[in-house]
Amino acid sequence: MSAQPQNKSHSRPVKRARRITAPQISARKGGEPVVCLTAYDAPTAEIMDEHVDLILVGDSLGMVVHGLPSTVGVTLDMMILHGKAVMRGSRTAMVVVDLPFGSYEASKEQAFAAASRVMMETGCQAVKIESGTYAAETIEYLVTRGIPVMSHVGLRPQSMHVLGGFKARGRTTEIADEILANAKAAAAAGSFAVVVEGVSEDLANRVTRAVDIPTIGIGASAQCDGQILVTPDMLGQFQRVPRFVKKYANQLDATREAVMQYALDVKDRSFPGEDNLYHFKKADS
Ligand code: KIV
To answer: The domain containing residue 165 runs over which residues?
Structure first.
């Protein structure tokens, strides 16, 4: 019998020597689910690195880190700053950085300029774009020039002003067919994976069956080829989160209680305590 340790539980991290690549993610179609989360800073990326396959530096950072009302105000410089931090914190997960609103829609050349800058300045391995069928030409242009692309269909937060908010999408046959067409176009154009956000379970399953690349669900279906959540949402940093979020921690209460206790300790002078103070022996000079 071999004495090799067996990795029986999917929750136990697998030791990896180097970063997961786009082709390795693509090869997971129909196989072991792809574990993805967002991160925006080095310490969080370091904690999650060995447990996830893919870290997305999502433009959700505009809302969950910078307090913006939507992702529309996020800039390329913001994405690059956070992308660099996540690359410094992670070691073996694949890192994908979102192209923000206004940085890629005007032309395929504009998209290449933005994506190449993101990849060169952060060292990340791919970019993500929110894509309708119109984006197929851009995706193909980027992929043939060495830039792996993850697409994003369904609820596309950058289009919230056209869509009328952050509501789940695909209630009518017409819109469901459009979302299906967007995913097929993204796959045919060479995307290595596609995020499917805020659609019915049934539509997410149709998309998953229709494309030959992994579907990464968020508010979609357990039958997608992988899942992603916005990390501060799943850590319970906010009271109100979308229905599809499962809170795995309660950071809101933990942070509030810690800050309240700190304030009390400062006011009654019990902090700093003996353990937190320096006492130097008298030196000669
Ligand atoms: O910006 C983001 O965090 C995303 C995920 C919700 C997929 O696009």
So the answer is: 22-254
Spacing of C-alpha 233 from chain mean position: 12
Kindly report the CATH number assigned to the domain that includes residue 33. Answer: 3.20.20.60
CA angle 126, 130, 133 (to 5 degrees): 110
pLDDT band at residue 4, thresholds of 50, 70 and 90?
Answer: very low
Structure tokens at 244: 């599809």
Average pLDDT over residues 257-280: 97
174 is catalytic: no
> Three-state DSSP class for 218?
strand
Number of domains in the chain: 1
Return the H-helix or E-strand segment holding 98: strand 94-98
Domain presence at residue 4: no
pLDDT of 19-65, one tens digit each?
999 999 999 999 999 999 999 999 999 999 999 999 999 999 999 99
For a ligand 1 pocket test, name from 95, 104, 127, 195 the mutation site with the most ligand atoms within 8 angstroms of its C-beta.
195
Q: How far is the CA of 144 from the centre of ligand 1 (A)?
A: 24
| Any domain includes 283 | no
Tell me, yes or no, whether 234 lies in a domain: yes
Distance in Å, CA 9 to ligand 1 centroid: 27
CB 136 within 8 A of CB 142: no
Whole-model pTM: value is 0.93
Please indicate, yes or no, if residue 285 is contained in any of the structural domains: no
Catalytic residue among 50, 105, 130, 197: 197
